[in-house]
Specification:
Structural class: alpha/beta
Helix content: 25-40%
Distance between the termini: 35 Å
Order of helices and strands: EEHEHEHEHEHHEEHEHE
Amino acid sequence: MKNLLDWSACQLCPRMCGVDRTNGEKGFCGMDSRMMGARAALHMWEEPCISGTKGSGAVFFSGCTLRCVFCQNYEIAEGICGREITSERLGQIFLELQEQGAANINLVTATHFLPAVIPALQSAREQGLQIPVIYNTGGYERPETVKMLDGLVDVWLPDFKYMDPELGAMYSHSKDYPQKAAEALAAMVEQTGPCIFDEDGYIQKGVIVRHLILPGHTRDSRRILGYLHETYGNKIYISVMNQYTPLSQVAGLSPLNRKVTKREYQRVLDEALKLGIEQGFFQEGETAEESFIPLFNYEGL
């Protein structure tokens, strides 16, 4: 079996590019074997059970295996900004975030750097890291990679972006997204079991599936909610997000060049109620402004 941690013929994500990243080659993620990051700091804008009042210790990595055309973190997903981090330094960052009072460690888009992230997690655990580790992902993962993180990741936080393969192809260069996301999610739920929270309401173990509503595509959103609830029921929490922000890169791409309307958002919420989804998070108020996107200024690195 191919060693997934071998960067010389990378197969970490479902694209399985096979490039030699140790020789400076870059896969679809846009990264070679140098681990790059953009920010490591307390993050207050996650779900209440993740950020709470303490904040989540979020580490944002550069590059991405999806590179969605509408990406809210476009600067780092495209590798426009990033600072090199060694595995040793990353382990120290985890401990520093714990000392700052973080409720958890939140790995944001880390899959393409796992050969460096895994040793960092192991080292930090040995040196006293006790808070839960959250794996924040676009959902486009291999079950083999999920299994490799058993015992290191406590909470899985995947997106489920599309049920329609054509949307996956159009917006994330991945017609196989629905299949791969479903396979990965099944492995995540099997690994963690139902969600567990501490006495203060912070999640300690389990799976929260996020879905970002896209303008003009509420039918697909409703299909996703139906699939998740029918398949997993109360084994998972579902987070429905209306924070889509049309950035400059989609200015000429309809319908992504506008915000989600109140009517569209309500349509999806009505479907959640109709399905009987009880374990979920739903955002209140207007769709998010650009100010809700973190500053990728290398803080904490």
